[in-house]
């Protein structure tokens, strides 16, 4: 049971806390866990989330910023007025709960199919693409001198890394070969500006309510790089969940996204955004291929891995629609 440990540490820093209740594990992976719980205090309950890598687990993946960096980034975003959960506490070694942090729980929906179809979100949907543009503009303005230590990635480095990942799968795909050649031929070179890049800003990593975006989640792939990468990633077809004619997460148009970004005082380079949309589509396809490889070779032959693995074929179609559209 994690509840007694949570109660002990919460009581040490949350004024008036008399315990915790309703702890429930929400998700888990190879190295991280997410728990929901309530902080009990005289005036009622305060919803909280624990995100942690338990003691004794292996190191985070090399592309991950790390939980300490995530906590710092989320708190910086919160303080800058970007929709983000407020970080309440960062775990210390003496807490004996591993590494991680506790944040205030934000109510809302993250399941994309519900957001795109349920009546509850009907009024918000037409405004989400523009709102997302404004949020990304704010995120890209966060001052670098306040950021935690993050890896820096150029487009050229990303192409080389994804090609190595693809070759390691030993699963030849002519469309992936075409995409790699296109990316090398259209490599835009160093960005005129290097900013914080969220790295996984998309439908599914946003908490949305009837009033719009309430929080940006999952900062684990944050890095320094071309800000247009985030705009391209949110347009990848896999995050539209069937609403393929609405490129921005199934919500709206690229033009609305760009308008929101520029209204917040930042400049869009559409050619670079397309480059990163192609890169993002290939990236997801290679990730799907890696999941299929683990399904085939690993001891865990889970249905989830097989289902994600088969989506590599969907990204081939998406790449062809980007690189060789009908009538071209």
What keyword list fits this structure?
2 domains, single chain, Phosphorylase Kinase, domain 1, Aminoglycoside 3'-phosphotransferase, Chain: A, domain 2, globular, 11 helices, 9 strands, 328 residues, alpha+beta
**Beta strands, count:** 9
**What name does the CATH topology of the largest domain carry?**
Aminoglycoside 3'-phosphotransferase, Chain: A, domain 2
Share of residues in helices: 40-55%
The helix-and-strand class reads alpha+beta
State the name of the first-level CATH class of the largest domain. Alpha Beta
Strand content: 15-25%
CATH homologous group name of the largest domain = Aminoglycoside phosphotransferase (APH), C-terminal lobe
- Please count the helical segments: 11
Mean pLDDT: 92
Query: What kind of sheet is the major sheet?
Result: 5 strands, antiparallel
**Backbone shape:** globular
Number of domains: 2
End-to-end span in angstroms?
Answer: 60 Å
Structural Rg: 20 Å
Question: Helix-strand pattern, N to C?
Answer: HEEEHEEHHHHEEEEHHHHH
Strand order of the largest sheet: 1-2-3-5-4
Detail the poorly predicted runs.
Answer: none
């Amino acid at each position: 049971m994690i509840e007694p440990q949570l109660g002990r540490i919460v009581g040490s820093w949350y004024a008036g806390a008399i315990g915790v209740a309703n702890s429930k594990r929400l998700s888990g992976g190879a190295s991280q866990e997410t728990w929901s719980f309530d902080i009990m205090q005289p005036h009622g309950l305060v919803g909280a989330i624990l995100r942690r890598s338990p003691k004794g687990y292996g190191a985070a993946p090399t592309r991950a910023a790390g939980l300490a960096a995530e906590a710092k980034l989320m708190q910086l975003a919160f303080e800058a007025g970007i929709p983000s959960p407020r970080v309440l506490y960062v775990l210390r070694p003496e807490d004996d709960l591993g590494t991680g942090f506790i944040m205030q729980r934000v109510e809302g929906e993250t399941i994309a199919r519900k957001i795109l179809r349920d009546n509850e979100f009907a009024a918000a949907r037409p405004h989400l693409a523009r709102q997302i543009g404004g949020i990304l503009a704010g995120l890209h303005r966060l001052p670098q001198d306040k950021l935690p230590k993050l890896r820096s990635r150029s487009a050229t480095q990303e192409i080389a890394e994804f090609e190595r990942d693809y070759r390691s799968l030993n699963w030849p795909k002519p469309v992936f070969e075409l995409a790699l050649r296109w990316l090398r031929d259209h490599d835009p070179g160093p960005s005129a500006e290097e900013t914080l890049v969220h790295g996984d800003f998309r439908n599914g990593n946003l908490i949305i309510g009837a009033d719009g975006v309430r929080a940006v989640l999952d900062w684990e792939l944050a890095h320094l790089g071309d800000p247009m990468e985030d705009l391209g990633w949110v347009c990848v077809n896999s995050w539209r969940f069937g609403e393929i004619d609405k490129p921005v997460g199934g919500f709206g148009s690229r033009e609305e996204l760009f308008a929101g970004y520029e209204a917040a005082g930042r400049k869009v380079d559409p050619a670079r955004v397309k480059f990163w949309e192609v890169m993002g589509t290939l990236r997801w396809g290679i990730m799907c291929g890696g999941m299929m490889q683990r399904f085939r070779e690993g001891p865990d032959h889970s249905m989830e891995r097989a289902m994600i693995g088969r989506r590599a074929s969907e990204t081939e179609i998406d790449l062809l629609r980007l690189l060789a559209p009908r009538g071209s």
